[in-house]
Amino acid sequence: GSTLQAAAGESGRYFGTAIAANRLSDSTYSTIANREFNMVTAENEMKMDATEPNQNQFSYGNADRIVNWARSNGKQVRGHALAWHSQQPGWMQNMSGTSLRNAMLNHVTQVATYYRGKIHTWDVVNEAFADGSSGGRRDSNLQRTGNDWIEAAFRAARAADPGAKLCYNDYNTDNWSHAKTQGVYNMVRDFKSRGVPIDCVGFQAHFNSGNPVPSNYDVTLRNFAALGVDVQITELDIEGSGSSQAQQYQGVVQACLSVARCTGITVWGVRDSDSWRASGTPLLFDGSGNKKAAYTSVLNQL
Ligand code: XIL
Q: Where's the GH10 domain (predicted)?
């Protein structure tokens, strides 16, 4: 294949990117995005603050812009994200207890129902585990409604859109020996054993020198897949440049390709200048839209 989507397609996988609605009018951006990628994640437009800015008043304008662009260009959509401690609307941030639980479940139900049939995979719950050595849940207003909030969100999402794949998504879960990885693994194993509807696990894969691509990434992906879920790289970016960056990207692709149930890779933006990172050059295209060494190594590895 001569594009990322074509090359990934040779092994039945997808290659995706995060899309920002306000960049779609930039033709350099949309030309690259349309040519290279066949899976789209809204970078911010489907988050709780964007889709429910006031309680029970839903707002889908920017999310629809992305979904319509994707669908009219033959691409699929990863929905991101139904429930998360971050980027909550103001009204939700100070809620607690039963009213917060019900508001969260209502949000999951409303948004997943609105997009029923149009979403390949939902990130149902994002970033619910703590960093560090505990392996436990992250403290948040949602977590304080009870440890079962995650499974409640998954059940609500399944009921609202039975055709969508349902993912748990997190970061720093790439290294098999990290406590956070083990914590998520144990939750997924528990969900599978009790019939909680979960289909996949997303690995954000935001890497930098302090958090490099682990050499055991394939082990992590394989162990999760062995629980009976698909795995996906969902927000890949790697700080750095040149051949060192290219090699690390290659390692991520290699790890995914070595696991049959690793079904796709998404990078978190198109050009370096589109990245959420304040500085640095973590993506596959430079600020002018030129292919970087990292692009070539990914394409050749796929
Ligand atoms: C980031 C976006 O890229 C930024 O534009 C926004 O300001 C903050 O969120 N993990 C996630 C993504 O799941 O939603 C985050 O996206 C990056 C970290």
A: 1-301
Question: Mutual orientation of helices 179-194 and 217-225 as an angle, nearest 10°?
Answer: 10
Residue nearest to atom 10 of ligand 1 (CA): 204
Most distant pair of Cα atoms in the chain: their distance = 52
- Encode pLDDT of 122-150 as tens digits: 999 999 999 999 999 999 999 999 999 99
User: Residue of the nearest CA to atom 4 in ligand 1?
Assistant: 276
Mind giving me the DSSP string for the chain?
--SHHHHHHTTT-EEEEEE-GGGTT-HHHHHHHHHH-SEEEESSTTSHHHH-SBTTB---HHHHHHHHHHHHTT-EEEEEEEEESSS--HHHHT--HHHHHHHHHHHHHHHHHHTTTT-SEEEEEE--B-SSSS-SBPP-TTGGG-TTHHHHHHHHHHHH-TTSEEEEEESS--STTSHHHHHHHHHHHHHHHHT----EEEE--EEBTTBPPPTTHHHHHHHHHTTT-EEEEEEEEE---HHHHHHHHHHHHHHHHTSTTEEEEEES-SBGGG-SSSSS--SSB-TTSPBPHHHHHHHHH-
Atom of ligand 1 nearest to the CA of 234: 13
Pocket around ligand 1: residues whose beta carbon is below 6 Å from it? 43-44, 126, 204, 235, 276
As given in the structure block, the two tokens for residue 66 are 């992305």
Rounded to whole angstroms, the Cα distance separating 44 from 235 reads 12
How many angstroms does the Cα of residue 14 sit away from the middle of ligand 1?
21
Q: What is the pLDDT of residues 237-246, one digit of tens each?
A: 999 999 999 9
- Render pLDDT for 89-123 as a digit per residue (tens, 0 to 9): 999 999 999 999 999 999 999 999 999 999 999 99
Ligand 1 centroid to residue 49 C-alpha, Å: 13
* Per-residue CA distances from 120 to 7, 46, 65 (Å): 20, 14, 17
